[in-house]
Amino acid sequence: INSNIATSTTLKLANSPYALGGDIYVLPGATLTIEAGVQFRSTANSTLAVTRGAQIIANGTQEAPIVFTSSADTGVYRQLANNEWGNLTIMGSGYISEDEIPSNSAAPSATNYADMEGLTPANPANNDYGGGNDNDDSGSLSYCAFRYGGIASIPGKELNGLSLGGVGRNTDIHHIEILNNIDDGIEIWGGTVNLKYISIWNIGDDSLD
What we know:
This protein is mainly β. It has no helices and 15 strands. The chain is globular, with a radius of gyration of 16 Å. The model has no long low-confidence stretch (mean pLDDT 95).
């Protein structure tokens, strides 16, 4: 996958595995649906970023999880491996607290926004999260695994296994595995999303931030 996803698209198991070619954005108005059992095997700074107003529907099963990993993953566990591809980032329109941007408020406000950490600097219009909709629905993730990731397109800015900015409570996230990420396992900036059944293992910084 070498270009942004501007229209609703389904990635089918029959065409798996897929590779992400750089920072790939699911643009506002588009829904990316990923069939159970699909695998992503990527290299370098390859990140899938779901923008505000877009959705991802990635529902695996216990028998056929959706796996985001690196091209070096042979299925044999490598304890010291990480930083081999990017991550999954989801940006929503829920309330956030952010006062580094001068126009923002330190208290939650519908006008607050922030730029997502670790994404391509050349795409500021697609990197924002935050707003006034705590019922934001950015889609559904279930039975998904994220392994050996964390490399970002900005030197010195590692990515988390799963990054969630301003994601709302109508987004479903459950049965998630994060394995061997160089930075945090999952990092959440504001919003109201609920997580359940999460496994985070062998992480370079915080497991859950």
